[in-house]
Design goal:
Elements (H helix, E strand, L loop, with lengths): L4 E10 L3 E4 H4 L7 H8 L3 E4 L7 H16 L8 E5 L10 H8 L6 E5 L5 H15 L5 E8 L9 H4 L4 E11 L4 E9 L7 E2 L11 H5 L6 E2 L1 H22 L9 E4 L4 H10 L11 H4 L6 H8 L9 E8 L3 E8 L5
Parallel strand pairs: 4-5, 4-6, 11-12
Antiparallel strand pairs: 1-7, 2-3, 6-7, 8-13, 9-10, 12-13
Helix pairs in contact: 3-4, 8-9
Length: 331
């Protein structure tokens, strides 16, 4: 009897229409296109401008894209997980609202937060549910409206982040495809270097926290970069060693899109050719929980059944890791 694995069987995506280019950012903060591009690899990012629309708006649209492409009945979905660092509200779950709006009336739902590693952790969680045999169809969505927590007078952060959402469907597989292995880690000493200080239980919202701009993302860029470079690369190296994968065995690196130099450092550690590294950072910037599924959507037609994919991410907290997955279908 073959082992049941969890495989990605469909993908969907949504990005807002409004494009915030480096040229526009030059009018907002002291920066320029050459400086941003050379240090991050980002040329533009998408911003959700519609008033009253939050992360759920993008999550719903990414899910609808997947449902339409797959011709899926939403009532067949058992569970909806929304991986996000920017929920619509602090209490009412974004995933619950998303599930209801897409017609997944037989599903339970919840949010999962691990900063930029949220989708990666969600992939691990969804896989466990599938492999347990309890559920057959799980919709995992990575979505973030980063523009809602960015100070557009702070050039250290406003040049990096964008908005977007991507979705994947996970189902049981009996062919040995899908999820193979994971290496996930975290380190709580990192929360001083990448955080939103106010709005939580330690420092509730007040007039002073608003005046001091403590509800925006703050990051110590140098420290975060150093940790991200070493840990993302280490995680991928561990996955390759544990599964006896050479660089020739890896079909694609699917890396978190935070900084082109971090992506390149990870690929170099894996000894991977550039044409095996999925990149769309120049188009979207860092969409946090959405980067990995957006890559899968953008490059879906190039992924072939049996391809070995190595996912990698690093996020605030700190959180990081790598997942090894065999692609399960031809688009």
């Amino acid at each position: 009897m073959s082992k049941t694995t969890a495989a990605i069987t469909a993908v969907g995506a949504y990005v807002p229409d409004y494009i915030l280019s480096n040229k526009v950012l030059e009018t907002l903060v002291d920066t320029n296109d050459e400086w941003i591009t050379s240090r991050t690899g980002i040329k533009e990012r998408r911003i959700l401008k519609e008033e009253g629309q939050g992360t759920s708006f993008m999550a719903i649209n990414a899910a609808k894209d997947l449902i339409k492409k797959r011709n899926l009945d939403p009532k067949e979905i058992d569970l909806v997980i929304v991986a996000t660092a920017t929920p619509d509200m602090l209490v009412a779950s974004t995933a619950v609202y998303t599930a209801t709006q897409i017609g997944a009336t037989n599903a339970f739902a919840y949010d999962l937060q691990a900063a930029c590693s949220s989708f990666l952790y969600g992939l691990s969680t969804a896989t466990s549910y599938i492999e347990s045999g309890r559920y057959k169809k799980i919709l995992l969505i990575g979505a973030d409206k980063m523009s809602s927590i960015i100070d557009y007078t702070d050039r250290a952060t406003c040049i990096i982040f964008g908005d977007g959402a991507g979705a994947v469907l996970l189902e049981p597989n009996e062919e040995g495809l899908g999820f193979q292995d994971e290496y996930l880690r975290s380190d709580g000493t990192g929360r001083e270097f990448l955080k939103i200080e106010a709005g939580g239980s330690i420092l509730p919202a007040s007039q002073k926290t608003l005046e001091d701009k403590k509800h925006f993302v703050h990051q110590d860029g140098r420290t975060v970069f150093k940790f991200a470079v070493s840990n993302m690369a280490d995680a991928c190296e561990q996955i390759m060693k544990r599964n006896n994968l050479s660089h020739d065995d890896v079909s694609w690196l699917v890396p978190h899109q935070a900084n082109m130099r971090i992506i390149d450092a990870t690929a170099n550690r894996m000894n991977l050719e550039d044409n095996k590294v999925l990149k769309n950072i120049h188009r979207y910037g860092n969409t946090t929980s959405a980067t990995l599924p957006l890559l899968l959507s953008d490059f879906e037609t190039q992924l072939k059944k049996g391809d070995n994919l190595v996912f990698a991410a690093f996020g605030g907290g700190f959180t990081w890791g790598s997942i090894y997955l065999k692609w399960a279908y031809n688009s």
